[in-house]
Write a structure and sequence with these properties.
By secondary structure, this protein is of the alpha+beta class. It contains eight helices and four strands. The chain has two domains: 36-72 and 108-275 and 310-420, Outer membrane efflux proteins (OEP); 79-107 and 276-309, Outer membrane efflux proteins (OEP) (Single Sheet). A four-stranded antiparallel sheet has the order 1-2-3-4, with no helix packed on it. A hairpin with a 7-residue loop joins β3 and β4. The chain starts with a helix and ends in a 5-residue tail after the last helix.
């Protein structure tokens, strides 16, 4: 009996193993995970990871730190070792020999070391300033693509609702036409409304696909009809629209130009200190003898090499650096004016679209009430089809206007945050 039970157990195990190997195994395939709706902040961070400034930040930071270490060194450059030998073997060959072994190092010019250190500090500050400004520029593109996608999704949803409403109306007209209550012309009008709604839905689907591709090109993620549609959510509105541009250091675009302008000024200061090549100090030891059989005499050589001034070449470098600094200073003033104007325009735009939203929502609510009334009256035969179609189109247009206004308010809030230099949230 035990042998029979054991045989049955073996057969059961083999059958189970065969079923596992002959069917897709759950342990050999990745389990499907629930798709997480994409958000504006996650789309921005995903897109930023693909940007060149994000990839080059570490290398630029290393370069700036290396410049700081170079400015902290005791010499203006690396030391140089030299070896020379002198012999009379080609001529008299009396055994005269001389060997020189020395080291030379460039010295800092007056004020050069301090100015080089200040320039290295400015370069280090410019690394993060460039990155933050690049993130702000990317956020502008992401916001435009994001809200374009949101508008396209809203238009598509409204087109779907319009088509469903038109089909319900067409079914009602068809039923009443078969009952002899409505004419064939009324039926054709209802069918034409369905065809018009289908055309509008096709246009909305094409616009939605184009908007998705525009966003996907920035994010680097494929977006299709299976991508969960995020709920329409506006970014947090900033509390104060003027405090963020009081100083250049608080707005990324102004901070970048301010840091670059300061860096150009320090480049000009360093160029002014480098109007000649660096002097060099030389320390060498000399071993020499006059002829064969004599012992070598050892001596030490100390020397300094002082180059002449660079003249017009140095003046050209100084003038070029000062021109860059003046250009960036002028650009900073223009950018400050542009930012302030952009903030004021964004605040006015937000106030305007909020008023439009209030009016549009009131109109949509009234249109829904009127549509319900005429829908009931049409079913009871108290109103004609042209009136019913006109009321339906007015209700659809009112809903579209309200939906567009809601997206416009969210877009205006996002534009205000962009003008203030705030990243997506």
């Amino acid at each position: 009996m035990f042998r029979a039970l054991r045989a049955r157990a073996v057969v059961g195990i083999l059958a189970t193993a065969g079923a596992l190997f002959n069917s897709p195994a759950s342990w050999s395939q990745p389990q499907p995970t629930a798709s997480v709706p994409l958000s504006l902040a996650s789309a921005f961070e995903t897109a930023w990871a693909l940007q060149p400034p994000a990839a080059s930040r570490a290398s630029r930071l290393d370069a700036a730190l290396a410049a700081q270490r170079a400015a902290a060194s005791w010499t203006a450059g690396p030391p140089t070792a030299g070896v020379t030998a002198r012999t009379d073997r080609v001529g008299s060959n009396s055994g005269e020999r001389e060997y020189d072994i020395g080291v030379s190092a460039p010295l800092w010019l007056p004020g050069e070391r301090e100015r080089a250190a200040r320039l290295a500090d400015a370069q280090l500050s410019a690394v993060d300033a460039r990155v933050v400004a690049a993130r702000l520029r990317l956020s502008a593109a992401i916001r435009d693509a994001w809200w374009g996608w949101q508008r396209a999704e809203v238009e598509h949803a409204l087109a779907v609702d319009r088509l469903e409403s038109a089909r319900r109306l067409n079914a009602d007209v068809l039923k009443r036409h078969r009952a002899g209550e409505l004419s064939r012309a009324d039926l054709f009008q209802a069918e034409g409304t369905v065809a018009q709604a289908e055309v509008a839905l096709a246009d909305a689907a094409a616009a939605r696909a184009s908007a998705r591709q525009a966003l996907a090109a920035l994010v680097g993620t494929r977006l299709d009809s299976a991508t969960p549609q995020p709920a329409l959510r506006s970014e947090p509105e900033p509390a104060d629209a003027s405090a963020s541009v009081t100083l250049e250091g608080t707005h990324p675009a102004l901070a970048e130009l301010a840091v670059l302008s300061e860096q150009s000024r320090r480049v000009a200061d360093l160029a002014a200190a480098q109007q000649r090549a660096n002097p060099e100090v030389v320390v060498a030891t000399v071993a020499e003898r006059g002829s064969s059989g004599e012992s070598y005499n050892n001596s030490i050589v100390l020397g300094v090499r002082v180059p002449f001034g660079a003249g017009p070449r140095a003046q050209a470098r100084i003038a070029s650096a000062r021109a860059d600094a003046d250009e960036l200073s002028a650009q900073l003033g223009l950018e400050r004016s542009r930012v302030l104007a952009d903030i004021e325009g964004s605040r006015s735009r937000l106030q305007s679209v909020r008023e439009q939203l209030t009016a549009a929502e009131r109109r949509a609510a009234l249109a829904r009430e009127v549509r319900g009334f005429f829908e009931r009256s049409f079913r009871l035969g108290e109103s004609d089809l042209p009136t019913r179609l006109r009321v339906e189109l007015e209700a659809v247009e009112a809903e579209r206007q309200a939906a567009r206004a809601r997206v416009a308010v969210a877009t205006a809030v996002s534009a205000l945050r962009q003008a203030l230099g705030l990243l997506p949230e």
